[in-house]
Design a protein that fits this description.
Number of helices: 11
Shape: elongated
Family: Belongs to the AfsR/DnrI/RedD regulatory family.
Organism: Streptomyces thermoalcalitolerans
Strand order of the largest sheet: 1-2-3
Keywords: DNA-binding, Transcription, Transcription regulation, Two-component regulatory system
CATH topology of the largest domain: Arc Repressor Mutant, subunit A
Distance between the termini: 29 Å
CATH architecture of the largest domain: Orthogonal Bundle
Protein name: OmpR/PhoB-type domain-containing protein
InterPro entries: AfsR-DnrI-RedD_regulator, BTAD, OmpR/PhoB-type_DNA-bd, Sig_transdc_resp-reg_C-effctor, TPR-like_helical_dom_sf, WH-like_DNA-bd_sf
Length: about 270
């Protein structure tokens, strides 16, 4: 069995899609998958499913959802005759979803990012780029795009979005370091429009344009960022961005180690806080 949450919720038994259809079951399964290998307290499950308005029957209804999810997981085992790759255990005041190695796309994503961080520290940016391309390729849209989310899932998904963006920045950095500046310009133009105050993405676009012989366009990217920061936040670009702008004006050599996070930077967090 294999589970996907980096996109629409999907539970696969071989080629057979066994994803629950009932909204509350899907919501509970998503919460348990995000906490795979950890006990999720009954009260947390209730908070996620009903927020501040749980029904009087919340605990018994929760037990029904657990039973239905467990039945789905067991049916896959009985069909294949194999031991369960994913199974749901009842623990003291909570539930634990045990997931076998390589059976959840989020775990695969985390493993690839960790391997890429080691390649980065070793200075092997081609390997880093390859691993991060594979990690981001596991995403098929917004995480849990078709699941109704309560307060706990919303917090986790906010953290996952930030993590994905951080990994994307790291991948673009790796691509810049191995000379793929021409190929990155289109992608970075889209990203800087999506994140108009994000300095690092703008720095990456400026470097890609500059190395492609488009200094005037790189300077315009800085000017656009400066206008946006002033208008929306009442701020000026950081000293790092101002230094990059000055170096471009002076046609100075531009290296990623000066303007972008390097191998010694803080690793991208894979688990949201809270």
């Amino acid at each position: 069995m294999y589970a996907r949450i980096l996109g629409p919720l999907t539970l696969l038994d071989g080629l057979r899609n066994v994803t629950p259809r009932a909204p509350k079951q899907r919501q509970l399964l998503s919460l348990l998958l995000l906490h795979a290998g950890q006990v999720v307290a009954v009260d947390e499950c209730v908070d996620e499913l009903w927020a501040d308005s749980p029904p009087l029957s919340a605990h018994s209804t929760l037990q029904t959802y657990v039973m239905q999810i467990r039945k789905t997981l067991r049916s896959a085992v009985s069909t294949t005759g194999r031991s369960a790759d994913i199974h749901l255990e009842t623990r003291d005041r909570g539930y634990l979803l045990a997931v076998g190695a390589g059976r959840l796309d989020l775990h695969q994503f985390e493993k690839l990012v960790e391997q890429a961080s080691l390649a980065r520290i070793a200075g092997d940016h081609a390997r880093e780029s390859e691993l991060l391309h594979r990690a981001l390729g596991l995403w098929s849209g917004r995480a849990l795009a078709d699941v109704t989310c309560g307060p706990l899932l919303r917090t986790w998904l906010s953290g996952l979005r930030e993590t994905r963006l951080g990994v994307l920045e790291q991948r673009i950095d790796a691509d810049l370091r191995i000379g793929r500046h021409h190929q990155l310009i289109g992608e970075l133009n889209v990203l800087t429009r999506q994140y108009p105050t994000h300095e690092n993405l703008h720095a990456q676009l400026m470097i890609a344009l500059y190395r492609s012989g488009r200094t005037a366009d790189a300077l315009e990217v800085y000017a656009r960022l400066r206008r946006t920061l002033r208008t929306e936040l009442g701020l000026e670009p950081s000293a790092r961005m101002r230094d990059l702008h000055t170096d471009l004006l002076n046609s100075a050599p531009v290296t990623e180690s000066v303007y972008l996070p390097g191998p010694g930077s803080t690793p991208v967090p894979l688990r949201p806080v809270g």
